[in-house]
Write a sequence for this structure.
């Protein structure tokens, strides 16, 4: 009985069984087969590299440029809206009648965290959704990202934003998070966008 | 084929910043190795070109996540291999490809097999799964564990595919003459 291809491959990987190693020492047929295996692999490695018939870079470049334009359009729209909202908030909020306190800010943060957890539990990344839902989710995530950007920018500095303005930002985040959860968990139509 | 591709760090940094010229330079540096890998795994040249394109779009999208832990080629190669294997899986779903063509002696592959073939053509006679395993293991140097992970299969699947592929290559090349 001679070595099988499995035996020869195992021998090549220094994982051969005791029987295979002993047999190889004594069998010229299997020695020739193992040598042929080494030569075959050497010939595989020596095969000339194949190149593509067509240049694919122009198509790749066009796709990159198109994606950048799409992002720019989306972000400029969302950014302008957020900037306008924030400007209105800063200008008009001081004259508003609302009295806010630290408890309200803590409540908004807590609600936001609860919704984040709910979304995590739902595991949205592993689920399939329709194109319409995916577009809506992307839109909501962008809006949340803009608010997060503003929150990160002010960095909790009391000098840059008043307490009630901070609360408004957090409440806006909670609203968007709720819509995001709705978009994932329930139906798109519930969100009303 | 041994690939030794060293890319300057500054080029990678520029590519990560989205510089189109740097991205094109990366594409030019890895175009042939990526296409070659895909072509050795897939039966059709057009599909290999599609993998080349998909791979670089993924590279552009994800290059910020490349932290330079290993060679850039290893990172790009893994993306390319995954893309090619994804196509093979899709094709298998469509055609319910037989894992071992030896069980289908009446298949067109067998009918068209010439009496004398060289290694290049012998490789093309293997199923896409078998040739992928052979190429990834014997040429690219992937371990059976890595191949199993890439393919979503077991280590023993990878080992048995390699053994069957070599047995088949050996028989085909025997017809060629004394070549191994």
């Amino acid at each position: 009985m001679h070595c099988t291809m499995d035996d020869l491959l195992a021998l090549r990987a220094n994982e051969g069984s005791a029987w295979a190693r002993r047999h190889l020492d004594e069998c010229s047929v299997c020695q020739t087969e193992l040598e042929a295996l080494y030569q075959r692999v050497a010939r595989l490695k020596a095969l000339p590299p194949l190149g593509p018939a067509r240049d694919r870079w122009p198509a790749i470049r066009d796709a990159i440029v198109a994606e950048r334009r799409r992002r720019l359009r989306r972000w400029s729209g969302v950014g302008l809206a957020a900037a306008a909202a924030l400007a209105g908030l800063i200008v008009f909020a001081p004259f508003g009648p609302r009295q806010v306190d630290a408890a309200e800010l803590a409540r908004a943060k807590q609600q936001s965290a609860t919704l984040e957890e709910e979304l995590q539990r739902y595991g949205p990344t592993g689920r399939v959704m329709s194109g319409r839902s995916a577009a809506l989710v992307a839109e909501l995530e962008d809006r949340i990202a803009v608010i997060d950007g503003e929150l990160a920018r002010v960095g909790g500095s009391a000098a840059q934003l008043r307490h009630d303005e901070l609360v408004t930002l957090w409440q806006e985040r909670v609203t968007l998070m709720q819509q995001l959860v709705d978009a994932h968990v329930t139906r798109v139509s519930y969100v009303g966008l | 084929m041994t690939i030794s591709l060293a890319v300057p760090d500054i080029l990678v940094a520029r590519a990560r910043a989205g510089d189109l010229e740097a991205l094109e330079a990366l594409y030019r540096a890895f175009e042939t190795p990526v296409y070659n890998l895909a072509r050795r795994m897939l039966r059709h040249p057009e599909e290999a070109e599609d993998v080349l394109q998909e791979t670089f779009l993924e590279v552009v999208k994800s290059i910020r996540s490349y932290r330079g832990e290993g060679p850039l080629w290893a990172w790009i190669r893994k993306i390319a291999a995954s893309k090619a294997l994804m196509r093979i899986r899709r094709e298998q779903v469509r055609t319910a490809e037989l894992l071992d063509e030896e069980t289908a002696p009446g298949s067109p592959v067998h009918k068209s097999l010439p009496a004398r073939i060289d290694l290049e053509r012998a490789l093309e006679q293997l199923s896409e799964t078998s040739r992928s395993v052979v190429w990834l293991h014997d040429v690219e140097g992937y371990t059976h564990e890595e191949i199993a992970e890439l393919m979503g299969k077991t280590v023993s699947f990878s080992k048995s595919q390699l053994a069957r592929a070599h047995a088949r290559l050996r028989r085909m090349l025997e017809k060629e003459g004394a070549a191994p």
In short: Residues 57-92 of chain A form the longest helix (36 residues). Chain A touches chain B at residues 4-6, 8-9, 35-37, 39-41, 43-54, 56-57, 59-61, 63-65, 68 (CB under 8 Å). Confidence is low (pLDDT under 50) at residues 188-193 of chain A. Chain A has two domains: 5-45, 58-191.
